Each structure stands twice: as C-alpha cells, then as structure tokens.
Amino acid sequence: MPERQRHGASIGQPLTRRDGHAKITGAARYSADFRPEGLAHAVMAVSAVARGRVTHLDVAAAEAHPGVVAVMTPQNAPALAQSPDLKDNPFAFRLDLLQNDGVRYANQPIAVVIAETLEAATEGAALLAPRYDSEPVSVALGAGEIFRPETVGAGSATDEGSGDLAAGMAAAETRIEATYDTAAQYHNALEPHASVAAWDGDRLTLYTPTQALWIAKGRLAGLFGIPPENIHVVCHYLGGGFGSKGFIAAPQILGIMAAKLVGRPVKLVTRREQMFGPVGHRAATRQTLKLGASRDGTLTALDHHTLTLTSRHDDFIEPSGILSRHLYAAGAIATTHAVSRADIGTPIFMRAPGEASGSVAVESALDELALELDLDPLEIRLRNYAEVEPITHRPFSSKALRECYAQGAARFGWAARPRQPRQMRDADGLLVGWGLGTATYPAGMMQGEARATIRADGTGLIETAAQDMGQGAWTVLAQIGADGLGLPITQVELRIGDSNLPNGGLAGGSTGTATSGTAVDNAAQGAIAALAELAVNDRASPLYGAGNAGVTAADGRLARRDDPARSESFGEILARAGRTSVEAKGQGAGDPASRKTYAMHAHGAVYAEVKVDPDLGQIRVTRLVGAFAAGRIINPHLVRSQYYGGMIWGVSLALHEHALLDPRSGRVMNGNLAEYHIPVNADVPAMEAILVEEHDPHVNPLGIKGVGEIGITGTAGAIANAVWHATGVRVRDIPITLDKLLG
Amino acid sequence: MKAFDYIRATSVAEAVAAAARPGAAYLAAGTNLVDLMKGGISRPDTLVDVTRLPGLDRIERGADGSTRIGALVRNAALAHDATIARRYPALAEALLSGASGQLRNAATTAGNVLQRTRCQYFYDTASACNKRDPGAGCAALGGVTRSHAVLGWSDHCIATHPSDFCVPLAALDATVEIAGAGGTRSVPLEAFHRLPGDHPERETVLEAGDLVVAVTLPPEAEAFAGHSRYLKVRERTSYAFAVVSAAVGLAMDGDRIGQARIALGSVALKPWRARAAEDLLAGAAPTPETFAKAAEAALADARPSGDNAYKIELARRIVVRALTLAAAGTPDRVPALPASPFAPHPLIPSAGAPAHA
Amino acid sequence: MSFPITLTVNGVRRSVVLEDARVTLLDLLRERLDLTGAKKGCDRGQCGACTILLDGVRVNACLALAVSHDGASITTIEGLAAGDALHPVQAAFLEHDGFQCGFCTPGQILGAVGLIQEGQTGGDPERVREGMSGNLCRCGAYAGITDAVLTAHAAMSGPDVLPGRQLAEDAA
Fold it and tell me: Would you call C97 and A16 a contact, using CB atoms and an 8 Å cutoff?
C-alpha cells in the first residue's frame, strides 16, 4: 500500500467549521426549510389521555375550516405494508401511525390535518376536539409490576458482575447504601422533528432530520412496501439530535403518509409541546448503590441496582448500571436492572444513555463513602483506579485517566479544597463548593461505508451518508479524507447527509467519527492505491516500477519513496491513463479481534465549583474544568465544543431538567421550553476543557475515540458533589432544585 | 389559532367601542396573547390592535411629582429610561429580571400588567380550569403544584400571577388608568387584580371594552429610591419565571425605617402587598430581628395549596434578604444579573462558617 | 378578509397581501417570503431561535402578528452580511465556534446584534451572558457564544458598523 500523508496536515488542526459560513448566514437549509412546489402543511393532533381509545373526532368541523385539504385519521390513513408494531429487530421501535384508535401515552398522534396553510392546518387540528374512552393510568416509577428485562440499552446484559458480593460486603470495614432518583428528561433538540415529503409514484423524496439516513430509509421501505432505493432522504443539516433522531419517529412518518393521502408534497413540523411523548425521552431511574470498602478506601464490593420505566408497549431500558462494569476496581461487583411499565411514550437513547444517569449516582455514592472514610474524593477515586477493566479483566486499549485527574486537579486548584462541607464562602457570603466526577464512555464503533474519488483536476471527493448534527462531521471527515488522499483540505469536496451516498451508519453512541472516519480513511487509501496502480505500471510515469508500496501521496502528487524528486500530480496520472477519475470504497467497523482483547473507553475527570445562596437555595455553577482523554483528536477546536456541550448537559441533568408528570392524567405538565428548563447562557459562566493526550493503537487505525457524550458523565456527579460540599446537604433526588436545599 | 377579525384602532374611543363586543380582545405586542392563542387558551373572535394609538408610548412627569407610564411603553424602554431607573430602581430591576431581552423589547406596560397566569393547568386545555371554563373545576388541586399559590387562593383556583413588574408597582402604590365606555377612571394596582374566590375567571376589575391606557406612580413612590430592591429566586439564572420574588422599598428616617413597602410575587393570583409587615417596620431599626419579624408577618396567612410549602419559608427568607439588601442601599446601577441572588451584594449576614475561598 | 401590508425586509421593500390575519412574522418570512434563516424552535417565545431585528430591535418573530407590523423594517440573518463581507458578529461566531448544530445560530446572531446595539453590556461578560439568555442553545455552545459576542462588541465600536445601515441607506 502506498504511504499517505496521514495525520498532521489536516488531522489534528483546529480548523473552523467548514459548514460554518452556511450556518452563520442562514444559507444552511434544515429539513423544515424546504418548500417543494405545491406544498401543503400538516399539523398533528395528539392525545390528551395516556391510555384508552379515541371515540370521536370532529372531522367535519376541521374539514369545514377554510383551507383544510384533508383530515387523516385511522379511518383513512394510508395502509402500510408492515405493521408499525412489528419488532423485527430490537431497534425497530413501535410507532403510532394512525393504524387504530388506541392511545398508549399522552401526546400520541391521533390525527393529522392537512391544509393549504400552516394556520389553517393548526386550527383544523384544534377543531377536532377529540373524545376518549380513557382508562386509569400509571406513570410513576415502581408503580407497576417490576420485572427483569431481557437486555438493557442497546442489547447489553441486564445483570453482570464479578466476585462474591456478599463476601465483599462482609469484608468491608465501612459500608454505605444510598438511593438516587433521576428524573425523566426530554431531548428537546432546538429543531423539532419535521418532514417535508414528496411522492412521485412509488418514489419518495424526504427532507427530515435523522442521525441515520440508511436506517431511516430501511424502516420506511418496510412500512411503505417499496424498495429502499426508491427512497431519497436528504438531511444536510441536523438541528440537534441527541438520540431522539437516531431512528425515524412517528411524526416524521405521518408527514409522509399525509403526502400520500393528499397526493402532493406535505410539510409536517412537530410542535414543541408535542415533543414530550412521541419522540422518546430518558426514563426516570431509581438507583440503589451499596458500597463496601476497607479503611483505606479500597472498594471491596460495589452493588449498583437500577429500577427504571419503559412504556407499556415497547422496551427501552435505561442502562444506568453499565458504567459500573467499566469504571472502578472493586473486589466484587454486581450490576442489575429492573423495570416496570407505565403509560408513557417509549424511552430511547438520550445523550450518554445509561452512563449519564448512572454516573451521577455512582459519583455521588463514592463521595458519600469518601466522607465516611474521611478521604479526599480524588484520593478515593485513585485508590480504586481500574488498571484493567473490572469484571472482564481485559486491559484497556488506552487509558489516560490518571493524567486527566492530575491535569484537571492542577488547573482547578483542587488541592486547596477543605475536606468538610460548608467551609467556603465568596466575598458576597455565598456558599462555595467543589466537587469531582469521573467521566467515562465506551469507545464503540458501528458500521459504515465511504467512497473516495480522485478526479481529473486533481481534487478529491469523499462521499458517505454520514450526518453532521453539530459534532463537526462536515469538517472532520474532510480532514481525514484530505490526509488520506494526500491533498490539502481545500482540494477535498465532502458530500454527506444524503441517503443516495454510501451507508454512513449512525451518528450516535459517540461512534460517528470513529466509524465514518475509518471508512473515509480506508476509502482514501483505496483510491490512492488505485491511482498508484495506474502510475507504477505506466512506462511513461516517473513512478514506473516503483511498486505500489514504493510511492507516497502528498500535496496532490504521488512520489517515489526512495526518490521524492520523482513525482507527478494526480491529474497527470489520470490524464495519461485516459481516466476521468479513480475511486474506491472503504469500510468502517471495529476490528473484532482487538475489541475482544481490549476494553475500549474514553475517560475524563470533571471538577466543578458551585455557589449556593445559603438562605434561598438558588444554585449556580461558577466554574467547570474537564480533562478528557479520548484517543486521537481530529480537530481540537470542535472537540472542545463537544466537551463543553456535554458538560452543559451535565449541568442540566444535575440542576435543571425534569419532566413533571401529572400522576392522574399521565400528561407532562411542563412540556414547553419556558418551564422544562435547560440551561441558558447565564447558567454557564466559565468552562475549560483540557484535551489530554492519549495514543490508542488498538481502537481503530486512526486511534479515534468518541467525544460526543462523555462530557455529560462526570459533570453531573461533580456538581451534585459540589452542592453537597457547599451546603452539607446531600440531595439524592436529581435534579437538585432549590426547594430541596431549603430544609 | 382561531381565525379572527382584525381592527386597527386609531383612537381610544374607537378601540373601546370595538373591544366592547363579545369575543373581542386587545392586541398590543402579543407576547402573551399570541402565545395564549397558539395554545388555544384564548380564542378571540376579534383583535383590536391598539399599537397605533397615539400618545400611549410616553413616560410623563406630572407637576405633582407623579410619573405616568403610557400603556404602550415597552418594558425595555421603561427599564432603561434614566429617570425611571433613578426614581424607581426596583421597577427597573424587576423589569430587567423578567423574560428575555427579546420579549422585553416587545412587551408593553399594559400587557405586562394584564399577563395571565402560568398555571400549567390553565395552559393545558385538556385540564379542568375555572379560569378558562367557569365551573369546570380546578385540575391543579391535587396535581403538580410546586409553583402554585400560598396566599389568597381558593378551592376554585390556586394559580399565581407571574409578573415581575407588577410586584414593585404594587409596593409603590401605582394606579392603573382605565379608559372605558363611561370615560376614564383610575384603580389602585393592588385592587386591579382580583383574588380567585368563587370566580377565578374574573381576573381584574376591567369590564368589557375597558382599555388600560397608563400606569401611574404617585409622588411618594420616589421616597424609596435610595433603599429599594427587587429580588427574584429562579430555577435557572435567567429567563425563568419567579419561584418567589419580593420588591422592597425603605424610606429611611435617619438610622430608622420611616416607611417600608413590601410586595411579594408569584405567591398569589395578584402581587401580594404585605401591609402588616410594613406597619411593623415603620419606625423600627433595620435589624435582622426586625426583618425576621416582618417576614413572619408577611407570610402569617400563608398556607400551602399542594406540594409548595417550601414557598412559604422561601418567601420569608426572600423578604429578609430583600430588606437587608434594601437597607444597604440601592446599587448605582441595576446589577448584571438583575434581581438575582447572584448579583453582587454585601456579605450575607447569615450564621455560618468564615469565608475561605 | 385580506390585509395588504408593506415591509422593508433586509433593505428591500416588500408588499404582501396577507390572506390570513393569523400569520406571524416568522411564518411570513419562512413560508411566504422564502427567508428560512429565522428558525422555529418553540413558536411560543421560549427559545429565541426566531429572533429578528424589528425596527432595529431584537424580538421573537413567532409572537409578532404580521398584520400588526405594517410599515416595519426587518433584518433577518440573510440580510446581515454586506455582500461577501460578514457582519462582525457573524465573523466572531465562526472564529469562536459559537455554535454546533447551527439551528439556534441565526437567532443567536441577531440576538447578539440587538444586544450590542442596545448598548447596555459595556463588554462585561456577565452582562453578555444575561443579555444572551433569551437564546437557548441545546448543543451547549454558550462559552463560544459569549466569547463571540465580546469579540464583536469590541469590534463594533461605532454606529456606522451597525446592521441598521442598509436600512438607513434604503431610507435615505
């Protein structure tokens, strides 16, 4: 294989976003910004009850409203080729697509009104005035029958552990047991789920936000009974996903059905209040941590039990206990999950599913243990540092967590922290507290494919149906492609966000850059090999006879390895060969052998400072320092932004987000952005992210781990611990709101 | 949103006549009304647009020292008016602690006074609400009630009034000037909003067609300028409704309090004037003990309407803090974080450990 | 009932006949004038993604009924740059990575322009954070946003660089 100019010219450079100009000028078109000719507007009506059936819709009133074109109900909804309840794989989540009059959760779609204008469709939906036969609902954690699920999260084992837990507990000199609740949270990407759908016979063009273009295409092909190649999904810009757009959701599909019903293009945009139900959420959890330790803080036993909720009709089990399998060494470990059903929309992956909710509980519990033992929180974490992955005892492919702790602590000034709570005040008399949390997230990979083309003009083209939801794929895949092709990045065109491109897999699970990046790198490598093949076999080339491995690619030229002066440009090689281009495909996937041998995780340490009003209980995070090690950093500028974003999600989890469900109706009572609080700018005063160097030869050839989710882990626990340190009050009901501190 | 007739009024008389028709509502900036219409909570048949009415966008100084704020003066313009900020600093601080810069640029004086409750059951049209549908019942009772009223509520309604602006207005004895079919009249702000009682649907003293044309601060209101604060506890640092808030003004008489004004926000269906506490403070020295007694008096009649007992204790503490801050003197400028506990302030005189960090 | 109105949008006079008084400025821009830069995140004044400059000040376009704003001047993200020359706030957002997914970005940028023009922050980071709190960013780009606004604030020293200039020129 030819040597390529890898890792340096573009990779590792803090380039600004290549999609930045489009985004700051308004030129970037998001799904709901498209307006095909003849567009009609659709608005969903959703259920006010959480269980029962719809007995009446005033369709006539809606139809009579000027501008209304049609009302789609179970009576006239287009037939589907496949039941939307068909569970042919664990990620085919059941969808409510107006196939019957049943209601399984509040805010479930029950009808769609299509009209000439958005205003008419909106009012048409209001005029439907549904009536219901409703049944008593249950939405509280632990209220229903509790059972042990078959798997948790994305097919992980429900229970896993090692060692003799009872013996570990018995051997402990200090034990703590504490139960932590985390609240139901809704993703609330700023861009609502939307679709602009246009049918041409049995061919569909769809503008919709999705983190996985090919998976969406596959699901739609099944539902509509058409070949996947008839479906063209376009999503160049995705206005935030966080897991809620991993799998195409009911509102998006209802827009497509509406377009079929009325025989013209339709735009359906989910209203904000309708996003609290049909597009997934992070389920509430109740986690019980039992820790046993010897006097020096060494964990002899770690028991992490999670109780959570799923919907009555489908399974997604928030896997809060999983991180306890990877994070701290303990003599014995047990991680178990249980679940009960409730009349709620099905929960789904939400930024760091499991790790986020699990981390806040584990990090809180560890500090509670440290208090018992009179140990510094950093000390107890170092004492239980996992040199190999607990339970499996596999070595880590790389793990610079110790450096993260050290660099973060130094930067934060952790050494000055008094051991006891309520010791620090600022000049205004506000309580000040410092807390620490360990960040961890698996360095997974999925499967993806890319195509690299070298064109006659010497430029490169990288194509993959990958997705940029803000993490920076538009930039980093071009960086990887540029180095792979030996081209300056200005000479590389990147095409993503279109389902006609090679399968880009899923932008999720912090795997996007590792997977797509590997595919791009492999494709580029293949394209250079194909080009070299042309040159080394061409007597007219200065590279003739050098052999494929005897050439290197850089700056748009192939050169002899043994004599770099003998070179020629990509364009010259193609021209002489009479070719307009060479191309190659590349795959991105984890290497099964190394993934079996090594445990692969990114790590970090987050230090938080909070201030708390001693009398009024209002809390503000005043400083966050996160130090993260996540393998090779393709673009430090954008990676820092990912860490910041994750850390702010940690603030949000610890202090803000909680859906308030009325236990009688099952409705989310604060289903809007005024009262379902996410942090505002003033909630995030000063942040710092330290990019700790880490070289990982095993995780993938480029050494990439994901960075999208790890920031939320560690942070929420660090804040919970800091609030305790400020106030002396340990709040175990997350989020920590001021009423819980008034005492 | 229901289709409506749109009338752009060119005079107050024309507006009042047009709005007297059943189903009519006044439209100014729409920051509250359009939101309510989108949610289906308000479904007017006619909107009478008053934004072009002449003369209502002025702040006028009366010969007697009063200040008349026109109904259409925008919240941002009012808060940033130099004389308003100097004479009624708590008013400016309250305005700037409310909503967002965008909303304050649009929202009007009268619109703020007339804003409806944020009770989730009022907003949720599938829930029973005596405000929306008299006699339907109150679904908030027994529901999610951590933000609901602790003063002045009834078995028919436990909602709160969400305005920040109205809290110092109540404290400062502001009056509301109303133009109606029978001419113009003034009503004290304190009497303008009604407690729910048996008729929560009757939110104010306004009759059909009545138009709020101005809010007036009396000459005495200026006496509190030197010792005046608005304090608002929120669940995030900004862009959030108050959990509880207080506006406080002290007219100092040497080292004693001559007169005190206290009003609480988000505790009742109207800004809650704490007169018993004021009486207790008049003539007293500004000490922590006195402030604590005033706080007790202010909340003497409070009782939880659900999961909100914490608001009572919180309100007491806010009263004490706001009095403490006011006694220390009004800051030269509205703080960077208006009305926030995180705005810089003198050392909190609270028992506890010494400063460390 | 139809309502003819005239607006000056990004310096261009546009006459529009509203067929429906319910149309908000946001839906007018997005669905009728093909100016989709302003985004609809909540449609209820709770997120700031629809922020535009209306007669020179930042407002939520989702809560403004178009019919009530006959004669108004509007600046949207599409009208902020002067040809190829980015507005200082745009340039600063790019430089400081003040966005990720980009959906809230037009609103953030117009919000920042409005905030700077209001002249209340004095370049104080805390006042900028407070002043930008009406624009939610779910990706969590706040650190970059604050830095960008501070940079742009410093750059926008005189009234001549304020974005109202094309409106002023149009009126002149």
Answer: yes
